[in-house]
Write a structure and sequence with these properties.
There is one protein chain. This protein has 205 residues and is mainly α. Among the domains are: 83 residues, no CATH class; 50 residues. Helix content is 73%, strand content 0%. The protein is elongated, with a radius of gyration of 45 Å. The N terminus is likely disordered.
Length: 205
């Protein structure tokens, strides 16, 4: 194909001129909303579609009908073109609605507009895959390691608290056991004293 075609991030240029520049490039082309550019692209497509299906080509396909009823042929052609344009426009409208293209394109416009104030250079690949992967993945892995370390510290602190609670519970159990043994020993001593007293005084008659 003789005409050079290219896709740009601003979505405004589809065909390039003889100098390789966009026909709409200029101080105001960047401010055109992408939704308008899409509508203009659809309108241009429809115009070219109608031009491609000209009345002359239509009559060449239906010569017999044209020779017998030229007026009817004209009406059929007009109806066909109208329905074709309507169908294409409805299809494009459905695609825009299903993909929420208007909101997406407006958001993209806003992002581009906000990005004009940023002067720092964006990241670009160095051409060495190992370095590119390392530069992209190392910060992520470091962040994940820090997150894991924080989680480990929290878990260790919880484990220490649980261990202290278990030890405190064990000490409480031991204290209760000692109290129970002391009470048992005191009761046994009291029983022995009662028996000794009964042995001294004799059995009651």
């Amino acid at each position: 194909m003789a005409t050079a075609r290219g896709a740009h991030a601003d979505g405004g240029c589809e065909e390039k001129g003889p100098e390789g520049s966009c026909p709409e490039s200029g101080p105001h082309s960047a401010t055109i909303p992408r939704v308008k550019l899409l509508d203009t692209l659809v309108d241009t497509f429809l115009q070219k579609l109608v031009a491609a299906g000209s009345y002359q080509r239509f009559t060449d396909c239906y010569k017999r009908l044209y020779q017998l009823q030229p007026e009817m042929t004209q009406k059929i052609y007009d109806k066909f073109i109208t329905q074709l344009q309507t169908s294409v426009q409805e299809e494009i409208s459905e695609i825009k609605a299903e993909g929420n293209l208007e909101a997406v394109l407006n958001t993209l416009d806003r992002i581009v507009e906000e990005g004009k104030d940023h002067t720092e250079l964006a990241w670009r690949p160095s051409g060495i895959p190992e370095e590119d992967v390392r530069s992209a993945m190392v910060p992520y892995f470091l962040q994940q390691r820090e997150a894991l370390q924080r989680r480990v510290h929290r878990q260790e602190a919880e484990n220490r608290q649980l261990a202290e609670a278990v030890l405190a519970g064990r000490r409480r159990v031991e204290e209760l056991q000692q109290q129970g043994q002391a009470q048992q020993q005191a009761w046994q001593a009291l029983r022995r004293e009662q028996k000794e007293l009964v042995g001294v005084l004799g059995e009651p008659e």
